[in-house]
C-alpha cells in the first residue's frame, strides 16, 4: 500500500504544509499564495500524470517481456514439434503406392495362354455373374460358431449362439457354403480393413490416424476393376466406402458411420435399400451389391459384447442372412464377413487375437464349394484353419471373372476353387499360378521402383520359378496328386512373398529418425539448462534468448533449405529446412548461454526433493525400455506419487511453525490417500491380465458406466465445491470472483454434469419412457451449457476478473465492511485517508496471485470433467483436489523453487490419464466422447472434444502449472514472473524428457516383437502429450498469468 | 549415540554376528518363502524377534539406561561392569516393551503405507500384514528401544533430522530396501520369487543389513536437505 500513499496521499499534505508555512499575509503574499496554489494544482496534476505514465510504462514493459516469454515457449514447442515430426516420418512405416493396373486382356502368364474377356472371365473362366457382398462390421469369428463348454452346455454370454444360420448351412450343405476364420492385418480399424479387402495389400501404420477422414484409394483395387469391366455396383451402409471410392457406385446409400451411439440407422438403411434391389424386376440395375452393417460394431463400442443389445443385433443379422439367401438367384455369390473382431470390451484398433479374428462365410445356390482334406467342418477357432483377409481379393476377382488387382498379395481361397468333391487340384493350381505370377509382376515393378538391385534372383523368384518348372515337366498328364504339390509350391511362393513384403515395409528411414532424435535430445538439454541451470531472474533473460533463438531458427531454416540444392543429402527440402531451423535455433541457444556463463549453475540435485524429481523422471524414462514396466505404468506412477506424499509428510516435521507443520502433514496424507483412491479407477490393458481388474465400466465386457459412478457424481456435486472453497478460506481469499467461480459456476456446473450423465445412462439403459430424440436434445443442451460455462465464460471472465480480495475496515464502534473490491487505487486511498484511526484489513492478501490464478484450472476442470465418463469425472475431481494439496505441500515446505512441484504435477497428469479409463493403446481411445454435446462431427470442435477427453488430466495439470509458482507467494515479491517461467520450463522439461525417452526406446527396439503393441503406442502418446502440454502451457497457462499479473497490478502496482 | 553403545566383548560379537544371522535365516528359508510366503513369514517372525531382542538388549544402549549410566560413569568405571548383570533383565524388559510398541503401532502404520503405495487391498492381506510386521520388528524395535517414545526424538526420526547411527541407519536402510524391492515385481520374467511380497522382504532384510553398516560408517552425520 506504500505506493498508493506516495502517489496520492502525499499531495494534499505537501500543499497544506506550504500553506501553513507562508501563511495568509498581505496581498502580495496572497497573490504569491494563489500562484503557489495554482502551481501546486499543476504539480499535483503532473504528479498524477507522472504516476499514471509510470504505471502505463510498467504495464507496457510487463506486456513486452511477457510476450517475449510466450515467444520463447513457442520456440521450444516449435523445436520439439520438428523433432517429433522428423522422427515420425522415419519411424512410422510407409509403402510406395504403384499406379499400375491389371488389364483384362493381359494375362500375367503371358501372351496366348488364355484370352478372356469380361463376358466370360478375364484371366480365368468366371463362376458367378453377380455377387452380394455384405460386411457385418466387427463380426468376430466366435459369434458365428456354436459355443459350448466341456459339458456341452451352451454359452450364456450375450454375444454367443445368436448368429446361427451361416454355421448350420455350412454344416448341412457343405457344397453351398463354407465358414472360416478371417484374419485381419492390423491395425484393425474399418478404413484400413476396407483398403486391405479391396486392394489385397498390407496397410501401413501411418494410415491408422486417418480414420476420421477417409481418402480415396489410388492403387488398383476390386472396385476399380469392376468399374473397368463395366459392372454396375450398388452400395449401401457405412459412408467410409463412399469416401474411399467416390463416384464408383451406380447406386449408393451412404450413412454416417462414426456415431457409435446410434445402433440402428445404418442397419435399417441397408435393409431398406437392399431387398428391393434383390427383387428379380430390379436385377438388371446392378451386378455387384455391397452392404455394410455397423450395428454389431456400435453395440460393442457402446455397451461392450456382453449386453442384451448385442444379442438383439446379432439375432437381427441372423434373420437378415436367412432373408438374403431366400432372395438371391442361382448365379449370385453371397459373401458375408466381418472386417475385424472386437476386444473383450467391444473396441478394436489393435492387434490382439480377438480383434484380428473376423468371420468369412461364402454361399451360393450353385453347389461349387469344397473343403480341404481334414477341414470338413467350420473350425472351432483360428488355430485350426484360417484365411487371411487379403485372400478375398484374388478369390472374388477370379470367381467374378476380373483380373487380379495389380498389387494384390493374397492367394485364392481353396474352398472356392477345389470343387464340391474336394478333388479339383488342377483348377486350384491354375488359379494359384495366376495369382503367383501377378504377385511376381508386382514384385518386379516394386523393386524396380525402389531402384534396388534387380539382378540378384530373390528367394521368392526362385520359389516361383521352381513351381513353374513343375508345370513344365508334364503339363497334360499330371495326376491330381501332382497338381496338389504344384499348388502347394505356388502357395509357398505366395506366403514367402507376403513375408518378404511385410519385412520390406517395416523398413525405417534411419536418417530422418536420427535427425529427429538429435533435435529432441538437444531440445531437452536446452530446456533443462534454461529451466534449472541459470541462476537469478529468468524473465529478462527470456526475451534476450527468444530473440537470438528466433534469429537462429530463421537462419538455420534457410541454410537447411539451401543445403538441399547442394545435392549432398537425399532427404527432401522440407525435412532439411525443418531440421536446419531447429538446429539453428538450438545452436543459437547454446551459443547464447556461453555469453551468460557467469549465471550458469550445475543442475545436479542438491536436496532430497530435487533428487526425487530427478530420480522419478529418470526412472520413468528408463522404464519405457521394458515392455512390462510400460504396461504397468499406471501402478508405477501411483507408487512414485505415494512415495512423494510420504517423503513430504516426513519433511513437514522439519517445519518449526506448528501451523505449517500441521498443514504440510495433513495435506501430504490427503495427497497419498487420493493417489491410492484414484488408482482404483482403471481400465486394464490386455497385457495386464489376469493381474488386473477393470473398474472403469460396469463390467469387463461392457463400456457402460456403473450406477455407482452416477451416485458418485452427485456426491461430488454436493461435496466438492466446499472442499475447493476450504483452500480459499484459509487465506480469506474466498472473495470476489472466487465466490462466482466456486460458489456458483462449479456448484451448478457439477450438478449439470451429474444430470447429463444420468440422462445418458437413462438413454443407454432405457430406464424412462421418453422418446430418444427429446432425451438426446435435453442431454446435448445440458452438455453445451456446461462447456460454454467452463470454456467460454470461464476464460473470458478470467481475463476481466479482479483479484480475490475484500477490504475490511475495522473502526472503534462499528465494523464497516465495504463490499466488492476497490475499483481503483483512488478509492482505496480515499477510504483510508479520512479516518486514520480505523485500521484496514485486506482479506485475501496472503494468497493474492495464487487464489486468482487457480480460478482458471477450476473452470477448465468443469469442462474437462464433463468429457469423461462418470467415474472419470470423479477422478478429475480427485485430481483437482490433489493439485490443491500439492500447492499447499509445496508452499508449507518452502519448495516453490524446487523442481519437485512441476515434476509431481506432470506425474499427476500422467497418472490420472489412467484413472480416466485410458491406456497407451489404440483400442482404449474413447471416440464416443466426441458426441457428448452434439450428434454430428464438426471439425475442429470434434477434434478438440476428443483431445479434451483423451488428455483431459494432462491439460488440467498443465493449466495449473503457473499457480505452483504463485500460490501464497508475497504479492509484491520481485522476480515472481521469473519464477513462473522457471516452473513452466521445468514442467515442459519433464514431458520432453519422457517423450524423448519413448522416442529413443521405440527407435532402439524397432525390431522388437512388442513394437506395435507397446512401444509404438507409448511413443505416440508421449509425443502427443508433449505437444499438447506445450500448446496448452503457452496459450492457456502463460497467457493466464498475463491477465493475473495485470489484474493484481491494477490494484497494487506492478512489480517486475 | 556412539557413547551409548556398549563396546564389551559379547556385545561386539553379537553386533557383528547379528546381520549375518538375520540374512542367513532368510537365505536358509528362501525356498519356502517363495513357495508359501505367509506361512514362512509367520514362522520367521519369532526368529527375527528373538534375534532383534538379543541384539537390542546386548548391543544397544537405551536412552534411559544411558541417562542412568551417565552420572555413574563419572564416579567409578567398575560400576558399569557390575551393573551389567543387573541391567540385562531390565534391558530384556525394555526390549519386550519396544517389541510390543513396534508391533502395536508400527505394523498397522507400515501396513497402511504399503497399501497406499499400491499393495492389493482385497487380496493377500496376510502377506502384506506380515511384511509390515517384519519391517516394524527390524526397523521399529531398535528405534523404540533406543529412543522410547520421546516426542521430539521421534519428530527428528521421522524428518530425517537424527544424527546417524547404526540403529537409525538400519531403519532407513530397511525402508529404502523395501521401496527398491518393489521394482522387479512388474517384470514379465514369470519367476516364483516375484510373488508378493518376497522381493519386499528380501529388500527389507538386505537394506537393514546394509543400512546398519552405513550407519556405522556415517555415525553422527545429519542428513542435509537443502
From TrEMBL, chain A:
It is found in: Endoplasmic reticulum membrane. It holds the Pfam family Phosphodiest. It is a multi-pass membrane protein. GO terms for biological process: GPI anchor biosynthetic process. One of its GO terms (molecular function) is mannose-ethanolamine phosphotransferase activity. Pathway: Glycolipid biosynthesis; glycosylphosphatidylinositol-anchor biosynthesis. InterPro entries: Alkaline_phosphatase_core_sf, Phosphodiest/P_Trfase, PIG-O_N, PIGO/GPI13. GO terms for cellular component: endoplasmic reticulum membrane. It comes from the Eukaryota. Its main location: endoplasmic reticulum. Belongs to the PIGG/PIGN/PIGO family. PIGO subfamily. This is Mannose-ethanolamine phosphotransferase gpi13. It comes from Orbilia javanica.
From TrEMBL, chain B:
The keyword Manganese does not apply. One of its GO terms (cellular component) is endoplasmic reticulum membrane. Pfam families: PIG-F (PF06699). InterPro entries: GPI_biosynthesis_protein_Pig-F. It is a multi-pass membrane protein. It is found in: Endoplasmic reticulum membrane. One of its GO terms (biological process) is GPI anchor biosynthetic process. Pathway: Glycolipid biosynthesis; glycosylphosphatidylinositol-anchor biosynthesis. The keyword Endoplasmic reticulum applies. Keywords: Endoplasmic reticulum, GPI-anchor biosynthesis, Membrane, Transmembrane, Transmembrane helix. It comes from the Eukaryota. The chain crosses the membrane at residues 92-119, 125-147, 167-187, 199-219. This is Glycosylphosphatidylinositol (GPI) anchor assembly protein.
Amino acid at each position: 500500500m506504500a505506493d498508493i500513499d506516495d502517489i496520492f496521499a502525499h499531495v494534499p499534505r505537501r500543499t497544506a504544509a506550504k500553506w501553513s508555512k507562508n501563511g495568509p499575509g498581505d496581498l502580495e503574499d496572497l497573490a504569491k499564495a494563489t500562484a503557489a496554489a495554482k502551481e501546486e494544482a499543476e504539480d499535483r496534476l503532473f504528479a498524477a500524470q507522472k504516476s499514471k505514465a509510470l504505471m502505463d510504462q510498467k504495464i507496457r514493459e510487463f506486456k513486452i517481456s511477457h510476450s517475449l516469454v510466450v515467444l520463447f515457449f513457442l520456440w521450444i514447442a516449435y523445436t520439439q514439434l520438428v523433432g517429433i515430426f522428423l522422427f515420425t516420418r522415419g519411424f512410422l512405416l510407409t509403402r510406395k503406392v504403384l499406379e499400375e493396373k491389371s488389364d483384362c486382356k493381359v494375362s500375367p502368364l503371358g501372351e496366348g495362354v488364355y484370352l478372356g474377356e469380361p463376358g466370360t472371365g478375364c484371366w480365368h473362366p468366371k463362376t458367378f455373374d453377380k455377387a452380394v457382398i455384405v460386411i457385418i462390421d466387427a463380426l468376430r469369428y466366435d459369434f458365428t460358431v456354436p459355443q459350448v463348454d466341456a459339458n456341452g452346455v451352451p454359452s450364456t454370454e450375450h454375444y454367443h449362439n445368436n448368429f446361427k444360420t451361416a454355421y448350420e448351412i455350412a454344416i448341412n450343405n457343405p457344397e453351398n457354403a463354407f465358414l472360416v476364420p478371417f484374419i485381419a492385418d492390423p491395425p484393425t480399424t474399418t478404413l484400413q480393413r476396407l483398403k486391405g479387402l479391396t486392394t489385397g495389400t498390407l496397410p501401413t501404420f501411418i494410415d491408422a490416424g486417418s480414420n476420421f477422414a477417409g481418402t480415396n484409394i489410388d492403387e488398383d483395387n476390386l472396385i476399380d476393376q469392376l468399374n473397368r469391366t463395366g459392372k454396375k455396383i450398388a452400395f449401401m451402409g457405412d459412408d467410409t466406402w463412399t469416401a474411399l471410392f467416390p463416384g464408383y457406385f451406380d447406386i449408393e446409400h451412404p450413412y454416417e458411420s462414426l456415431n457409435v451411439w446410434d445402433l440402428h440407422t445404418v442397419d435399417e438403411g441397408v435393409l431398406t435399400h437392399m431387398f428391393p434391389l434383390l427383387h428379380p424386376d430390379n436385377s438388371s440395375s446392378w451386378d455387384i451389391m455391397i452392404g455394410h452393417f455397423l450395428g454389431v460394431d456400435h453395440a460393442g463400442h457402446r455397451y461392450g459384447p456382453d449386453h442384451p443389445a448385442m444379442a438383439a443385433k446379432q439375432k437381427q443379422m441372423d434373420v437378415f442372412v436367412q432373408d438374403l439367401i431366400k432372395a438371391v438367384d442361382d448365379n449370385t455369390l453371397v459373401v458375408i464377413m466381418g472386417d475385424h473382431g472386437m476386444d473383450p470390451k467391444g473396441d478394436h484398433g489393435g492387434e490382439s487375437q480377438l480383434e484380428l479374428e473376423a468371420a468369412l462365410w461364402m454361399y451360393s445356390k450353385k453347389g461349387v464349394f469344397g473343403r480341404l482334406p481334414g477341414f470338413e467342418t467350420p473350425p472351432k477357432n483360428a488355430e485350426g484353419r484360417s484365411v487371411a483377409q487379403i485372400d478375398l481379393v484374388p478369390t472374388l476377382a477370379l470367381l467374378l471373372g476380373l483380373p487380379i488387382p495389380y498389387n494384390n498379395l493374397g492367394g485364392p481361397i481353396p474352398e472356392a476353387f477345389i470343387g464340391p468333391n474336394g478333388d479339383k487340384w488342377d483348377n486350384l493350381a491354375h488359379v494359384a499360378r495366376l495369382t503367383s505370377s501377378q504377385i511376381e509382376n508386382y514384385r518386379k515393378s516394386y523393386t524396380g521402383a525402389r531402384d534396388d538391385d534387380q539382378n540378384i534372383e530373390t528367394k521368392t523368384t526362385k520359389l516361383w520359378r521352381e513351381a513353374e518348372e513343375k508345370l513344365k515337366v508334364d503339363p497334360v498328364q499330371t495326376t491330381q496328386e501332382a497338381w496338389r504339390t504344384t499348388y502347394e509350391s505356388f502357395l509357398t511362393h505366395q506366403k514367402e512373398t507376403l513375408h518378404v513384403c511385410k519385412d520390406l515395409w517395416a523398413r525405417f528411414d534411419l536418417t530422418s529418425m536420427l535427425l529427429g532424435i538429435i533435435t529432441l535430445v538437444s531440445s531437452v538439454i536446452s530446456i533443462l539448462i534454461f529451466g534449472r541451470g541459470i541462476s537469478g531472474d529468468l524473465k529478462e533473460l527470456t526475451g534476450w534468448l527468444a530473440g537470438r533463438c528466433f534469429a537462429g531458427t530463421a537462419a538455420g531454416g534457410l541454410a537447411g533449405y539451401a543445403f538441399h540444392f547442394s545435392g549432398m543429402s537425399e532427404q527432401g527440402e522440407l525435412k532439411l529446412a525443418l531440421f536446419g531451423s531447429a538446429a539453428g535455433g538450438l545452436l543459437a541457444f547454446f551459443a547464447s548461454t556461453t555469453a551468460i556463463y557467469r549465471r550458469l549453475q550445475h543442475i545436479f540435485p542438491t536436496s532430497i526433493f530435487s533428487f526425487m524429481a530427478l530420480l522419478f523422471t529418470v526412472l520413468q524414462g528408463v522404464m519405457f525400455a521394458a515392455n512390462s514396466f510400460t504396461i504397468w505404468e499406471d501402478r508405477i506412477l501411483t507408487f512414485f506419487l505415494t512415495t512423494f506424499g510420504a517423503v513430504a509428510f516426513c519433511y513437514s516435521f522439519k517445519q518449526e511453525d506448528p501451523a505449517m507443520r500441521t498443514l504440510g502433514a495433513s495435506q501430504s496424507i490427503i495427497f497419498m490417500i487420493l493417489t491410492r483412491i484414484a488408482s482404483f479407477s482403471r481400465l486394464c490393458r490386455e497385457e495386464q491380465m489376469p493381474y488386473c481388474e477393470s473398474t472403469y465400466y460396469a463390467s469387463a465386457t461392457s463400456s457402460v458406466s456403473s450406477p455407482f459412478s452416477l451416485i458418485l457424481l452427485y456426491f461430488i456435486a454436493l461435496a466438492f465445491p466446499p472442499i475447493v472453497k476450504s483452500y480459499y478460506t484459509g487465506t480469506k481469499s474466498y472473495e470476489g470472483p472466487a465466490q462466482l467461480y466456486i460458489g456458483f459456476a462449479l456448484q451448478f456446473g457439477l450438478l449439470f454434469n451429474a444430470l447429463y450423465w444420468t440422462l445418458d445412462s437413462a438413454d443407454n439403459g432405457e430406464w424412462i419412457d421418453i422418446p430418444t430424440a427429446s432425451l438426446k436434445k435435453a442431454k446435448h443442451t445440458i452438455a453445451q451449457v456446461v462447456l460454454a460455462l467452463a470454456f467460454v465464460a470461464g476464460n473470458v471472465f478470467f481475463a476481466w476478473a479482479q483479484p480475490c480480495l475484500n477490504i475490511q475496515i475495522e473502526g472503534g464502534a462499528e465494523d464497516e465492511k465495504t463490499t466488492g473490491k476497490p475499483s481503483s487505487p483512488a478509492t482505496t486511498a480515499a477510504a483510508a485517508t479520512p479516518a486514520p484511526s480505523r485500521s484496514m484489513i485486506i482479506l485475501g492478501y496472503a494468497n493474492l496471485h495464487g487464489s486468482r490464478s487457480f480460478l482458471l484450472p477450476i473452470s477448465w476442470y468443469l469442462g474437462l470433467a464433463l468429457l469423461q465418463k462418470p467415474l472419470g469425472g470423479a477422478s478429475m475431481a480427485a485430481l483437482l483436489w490433489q493439485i490443491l494439496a500439492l500447492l499447499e505441500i509445496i508452499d508449507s515446505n518452502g519448495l516453490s523453487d524446487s523442481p519437485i512441484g512441476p515434476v509431481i504435477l506432470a506425474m499427476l497428469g500422467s497418472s490420472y490419464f489412467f484413472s480416466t479409463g485410458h491406456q497407451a493403446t489404440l483400442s482404449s481411445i474413447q471416440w464416443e466422447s466426441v458426441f457428448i454435446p452434439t450428434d454430428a462431427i464438426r471439425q475442429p470442435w470434434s477434434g478438440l472434444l476428443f483431445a479434451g477427453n483423451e488428455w483431459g488430466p494432462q491439460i488440467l495439470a498443465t493449466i495449473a502449472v503457473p499457480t505452483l509458482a504463485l500460490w501464497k507467494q508475497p504479492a509484491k515479491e520481485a522476480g515472481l514472473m521469473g519464477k513462473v517461467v522457471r516452473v513452466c520450463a521445468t514442467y515442459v522439461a519433464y514431458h520432453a524428457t519422457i517423450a524423448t525417452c519413448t522416442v529413443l526406446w521405440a527407435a532402439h527396439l524397432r525390431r522388437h516383437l512388442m513394437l506395435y503393441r507397446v512401444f509404438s503406442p507409448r511413443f505416440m502418446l508421449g509425443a502427443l502429450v508433449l505437444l499438447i502440454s506445450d500448446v496448452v502451457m503457452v496459450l492457456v497457462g502463460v497467457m493466464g498469468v498475463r491477465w493475473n499479473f495485470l489484474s493484481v497490478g491494477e490494484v497494487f502496482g506492478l512489480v517486475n | 549415540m556412539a557413547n551409548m553403545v556398549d563396546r564389551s566383548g559379547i556385545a561386539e560379537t553379537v553386533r557383528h554376528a547379528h546381520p549375518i544371522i538375520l540374512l542367513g535365516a532368510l537365505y536358509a528359508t528362501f525356498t519356502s518363502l517363495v513357495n508359501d510366503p505367509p506361512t514362512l513369514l509367520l514362522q520367521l517372525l519369532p526368529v527375527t524377534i528373538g534375534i532383534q531382542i538379543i541384539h537390542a538388549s546386548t548391543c544397544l544402549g537405551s536412552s534411559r539406561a544411558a541417562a542412568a549410566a551417565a552420572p555413574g560413569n563419572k564416579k567409578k568405571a567398575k560400576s558399569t561392569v557390575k551393573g551389567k548383570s543387573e541391567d540385562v533383565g531390565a534391558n530384556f524388559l525394555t526390549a519386550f516393551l519396544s517389541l510390543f510398541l513396534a508391533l502395536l503401532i508400527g505394523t498397522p502404520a507400515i501396513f497402511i503405507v504399503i497399501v497406499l503405495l499400491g499393495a492389493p487391498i482385497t487380496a493377500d492381506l496376510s502377506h502384506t500384514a506380515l511384511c509390515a510386521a517384519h519391517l516394524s520388528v527390524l526397523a521399529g524395535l531398535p528405534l523404540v528401544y533406543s529412543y522410547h517414545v520421546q516426542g521430539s526424538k521421534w519428530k527428528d526420526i521421522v524428518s530425517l533430522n537424527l544424527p546417524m547411527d547404526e540403529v537409525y541407519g538400519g531403519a532407513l536402510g530397511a525402508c529404502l530396501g523395501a521401496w527398491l524391492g518393489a521394482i522387479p515385481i512388474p517384470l514379465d520374467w514369470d519367476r516364483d520369487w516375484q510373488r508378493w511380497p518376497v522381493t519386499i522382504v528380501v529388500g527389507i532384510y538386505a537394506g537393514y543389513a546394509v543400512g546398519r553398516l552405513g550407519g556405522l560408517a556415517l555415525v553422527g552425520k545429519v542428513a542435509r536437505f537443502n
